[in-house]
Amino acid sequence: MKIKYDRPLHFIVPGSLESLTGGTLYDKQIIDGIRRRGIYVEVHEVPGTFPSPRAEDKAAFARAFWYIPDGSLVVIDGLMLAGAAEVIRPEKERLHFTGLIHHPHSEEPEFNAAEQARLRQAEQAAFRLMDQLIVTSPFTRLLLQFWQLEDLPVTTVLPGTNTQRLARGSRSQSVHLLCVANVLYRKGYSVLVDALARLKAYDWHFTAAGSLTMEPQTVERLRTQIKKQGLSHRIHLTGAVSPAKLRGIYRQSDLFVFPSLYEGYGMALAEAISAGLPVVSTTGGAIPFTTRGAAVLVPPGDVEALAEALRLVLDQPEYRRRLAHLSQKVRPQLPTWQQSTNAFIEAVYGTV
User: Fold this and answer.
1) How far apart are CA 60 and CA 122, in angstroms?
2) CA 210 – CA 184 distance, rounded (Å)
């Protein structure tokens, strides 16, 4: 049966589509790609404290549906689904829903067991109102098999990767380490700082490229930790960085370190592999799926294991070169954004 693409598509996203998070970057790339295919897309930006919305956030979410005609195809970013089932339920009969799940937020490590259970129940209720789900990694698809979602169709659409020029390195005696991630608890920066504190005898500098405004308390604690460990002169927190500047930072780095406690995919890892950088990361969430064997991986949150992995890589330049070669071998396997967009369109329109 030939799929028709004549129905407009509505995306409902949390906050501004210009914010620099992995989920928002995915949404924006897919939306731009769909528009390039000539399909009409309308974006509805809903402010709020998702995934834990307040009453006024739910009201704003409900108002977004006022502007969506009956029979429309609607993609809802998964960050908005937890705690919002009662907003979606009245619209179920007149709209066709796709839930875009970057990762279940109930899996994030900062929540205690009771909070995780509450969030999971809320997410499950909202997921069951969807006509289908799109997830961004095989790991998340596997995870959802245990969520009792009955026969709900689930399709994996990996993020695309912007092809990077191969890194030339810092060309200095000091090894330049890079992490690209907003400074959030989940990204594991505090674990990395403690690991680096054990490696003061080595000649290295570390750049953390990512927003410093999303979790101010986490940033303040990290700055205090860096100062206490005597590493202020060796660690640079850049704040949010433009894509153009970020490409240059990748190119001038020697080693990519990604200490995240949990990832639904890890787009920065794919970018680092595309740049041919050696990678040290963790086994948190989907990271082993994303790195495809082209990284040294340690358990998330394990300071000693991370320090030992970094010591090995800092000690042995030849080992770094072998890791870089692995990245270069995996690089051609990473999907482009055009491929990801095509897969997304087929998933959304193929179930109508």
Assistant:
1) 19
2) 9
Nearest to 167 by CA among 331, 286, 338, 334: 331
pLDDT in tens, 205-225: 999 999 999 999 999 999 999
State the DSSP string of 91-137: GTTTSEEEEEESS-GGG-TTS-HHHHHHHHHHHHHHHTTSSEEEESS
Same domain, residue pair 118 and 211: no
* Domain presence at residue 136: yes
Whether the predicted pLDDT of 336 surpasses 80: yes
- Spatial CA neighbour of 310 closest among 283, 331, 286, 282: 282
Task: Answer yes or no: are the C-beta atoms of 105 and 150 closer than 8 Å.
Answer: no
271: exposed, middle or buried (C-beta count within 10 Å: 0-12, 13-18, 19+)? buried
Q: Which amino acid is residue 3, in one-letter code?
A: I
What is the token pair recorded at 183?
């400074």
Q: Which residues contact 23 (CB under 8 A, 6 or more apart)?
A: 77, 78, 79, 102
pLDDT of residue 206: 98
Examine the domain organization and report whether 329 and 341 are in the same domain. Answer: no
**Can you name the residues that pair with 257 across neighbouring β-strands?**
280
Q: Output the pTM of the full model.
A: 0.93
**CB neighbour list of residue 284: distance below 8 Å, 6 or more residues apart:** 188, 260, 261, 262, 263, 300
